[in-house]
Automatic annotation (TrEMBL):
Residues 56-185, 203-343 form the Target of Nesh-SH3/FNDC1 C-terminal domain. It comes from the Bacteria. Keywords: Signal. Residues 1-19 form the signal peptide. The keyword Signal applies. This is Target of Nesh-SH3/FNDC1 C-terminal domain-containing protein. Residues 20-42 are annotated as: Disordered. InterPro entries: TARSH/FNDC1_C. It comes from Chondromyces apiculatus DSM 436. The keyword Signal applies.
Amino acid sequence: MLSLAACALLAACGPIVSGGGGGEETGDDDTPVEPGDPGQPLPEGWSYGCFETFDEPSCDGAKYVSFNETYQKYVGVILCAADRYKLYLGESEEGVFYQIGDYAGHGQDHCELVNPAFSIPNEDDITSGGCQDCATSADASWYANPVGTQGYSRGVFGEGFTFEPVWPEYNLYTVDWLSCGVSFPVGGGTCGGTSPDPGGFGWSPGNFQVGGVATPCGGDRYVRFDEEYGLYVGAILCSPTRYKLLLGETEDGVFHEIGDYAGHGQDHCELVNAGFTIPDEDDITSGGCTDCATSAEESWYENPVGSQGWSRANYGQGFSFEPVWPEYNLYTVGWYECGATIP
């Protein structure tokens, strides 16, 4: 996630343009155009956004923006799912937005930027003010201290935010996502005005179960049957362009993670994108899919020893079921981007 780590202690590092990836359609002047079917109304005070982020974002869905009168900042939201998002702050509606750090926790109090009714009597318990649907990736140990980048900071609920031209080395943490008891429409094209390729496969809403799955994706589920491998492919959305992939033998049964003996799941994108190829098994873009990526590029992968799952080594091979996930060399990732949208 923190692609500016190499810029440590260099406040002059330039922003990374983060357009695209499931945001909103725009006109010729990059002005956001509301999707035709947003699926649900926008929360009061929010509009479709088209901002850049200084760091590579951890979520890649639709973007929304609102001006916060209390703190005199624009609040930016990038969706992982309708009720899960990365929060940012910026000085102008279409300018560069920055991550938000917390000196006294892991961003729990930042939910007030999204939910006007939010309170947090206990700064370490995001639900202490009554928001039972509130959560943060820090609850699953997904947080970071992106030393050397730039961002906003504060210590506790109700304080103003201070700009940090150089993110300090210690005690200022930011999270990958927050759920603040408020949902946003998932629908929309991309900030660049084009829609991602659907990948050539048909997907149906899924009702499958999952076993032993570690992923930041918590959105809608979709399923399709793969004729070539004789298995059902399941997807749990982080956004329409980012998802966790699984395999199962029945459409409504238990689906399991997919492991890779010769990489970190790069070749699994063929399960989503009919045009995907990978001449170099270690380079997910080697077949021409420049929008393809996995969480392994951000060092987010694991070897869930003792779990159950499916495995293979190379593109085009069949998948074998592993009743006991081996101790070594079989890795699975938290999410995939395969140059195709689901559904």
